[in-house]
Amino acid sequence: MTLSTILPRGHRRPPAERGRRGFTAADPLGALAILSVVAVVALWVMNQGGPLGLTTADRAMGSLGLLTGLLASDLMILQVVLLARIPWVERSWGHDLLTRRHRWIGFASFWLMIGHVVLFAVERAVRAPDAMLDALVRVFVTDSWMLFATVGTVLLVMVVVTSIRAARRRLRYESWHLLHLYSYAGIAATFPHTFVDGADFHETWTRVYWWCLYGFAFAVTLVYRIALPAWRSLHHRLRVESVVTEAPGTVSVTLTGHRLDRMRTASGQFFVWRFLDGPGWTRGNPYTLSAAPASDRLRITIKAAGDGSARAARLTPGTRALIEGPYGTLTARQRSQPRMLLIAAGIGITPMRALIEDTAYATGETTLIYRYSEDQHAVFADELRAIAAHRGVELIFLPGPRRADTSWQAAGPAHLDDDAQVLKNLVPDIARCDIYVCGPPAWITAVRRAARGAGAHRDHVHTEEFAW
């Protein structure tokens, strides 16, 4: 490591003590999402008469079935837009928050879709009790485009079931991601019957509304999930330069490329990577930068946790890489306080290593707490010490297994039961810190709880979950 790689790069220091964040682009985004739901309900009321139109049992079932279907369609479109990787949406909400809201909206749309299916099935059964089986066959198979809708519904059910936390634990990331992509096929399969059979799609202006909504979701997905990553991969021409073992099962991959500064990548961000090293290259994996980005070089550090990450150790110099990104908001752009506290567990040290390298701060203004299970897994220990010595970072190593599942501390004779007090003892002025946290989800939750108990404001805690 040379001195030039660990000195600050002249970023302007952010203003201190700005307090809570004001109005951001996230506010109108949320308002537009709510407005789209209100618009759907308004369309239903105008076309179906609202509650006044629920005069008989079968009509009530059909009308409510239409409403649940419309709401499910609207929320599915919102899901697609949320994770379409629109740059200003990513910057406003951050990938973690977008992922959580995508999941909440996904489960809401799923149950609305189930309600839509059940209500229409009951409506047909009520109308033809003597020919119930034929009625159900027609509504799910033989009516116009209904077979496609049924197949699409089955695909969406599969996606939701595999998204439940218990199911995700049993799947490799690559398998889960491949199954998740079937949601696009499911939405596409349900699309035709919506426009052919939906009573709310027969008016010209309602058709225009829905065509614009679907068209917008398709356009942003095409541009930001396919076209932009393809262009960046071709333009920047990233190739593997070297692969270095950092710890058992953990390697750092350094890549060189053309005009990488044009991507305006910041320390703390991540890319979705695909290495053209043979079969399986199409499955992308998210890896965070583990060194400050340069105009011709990027570095990522990968811990083997599945087929894709295990292959990283076998990469050879010259291997071409395709990228999506940069993504994530765990960057110095979040700063609003005069001090920085960075807390990492395990491989969560990767964004912290990059952040302390090139973020603007004075000597004594930054503290890094690094928790790891064993000394052999202390990734970047020497690099961290070198950066700390040159830039005046207080470096605290906490080796050993966690004290408890609900604690962020390492077990040991010196630990205290009060997690918040331990953090307060380590960083007395924690209330004046921007706190950056990266690690497993349960551990992050414990750190958040301790930080709040120690006096930190929730808006000053910035996280990146090391999970999918």
Report on the architecture of this protein.
There is one protein chain. Helix 4 (95-127) packs across helix 6, helix 5 (132-142) crosses helix 6 and helix 6 runs antiparallel to helix 9 (182-197). Residues 1-23 have low confidence and may be disordered. The chain has 468 residues and is of the alpha/beta class. Strand 10, helix 15 (441-453) and strand 11 (461-465) form a beta-alpha-beta unit. It is elongated and about 80 Å long. It has a five-stranded parallel sheet with strand order 9-8-7-10-11, with helices on both faces. The protein has a three-stranded antiparallel sheet with strand order 1-2-5, with no helix packed on it. A three-stranded antiparallel sheet has the order 4-3-6. The longest helix is centred in the first third of the chain and has 33 residues, at 95-127. It has 15 helices and eleven strands. The chain folds into three domains: 26-230; 237-327, Beta Barrel (Elongation Factor Tu (Ef-tu), domain 3); 332-465, Nucleotide-binding domain of ferredoxin-NADP reductase (FNR) module (Rossmann fold, 3-Layer(aba) Sandwich).
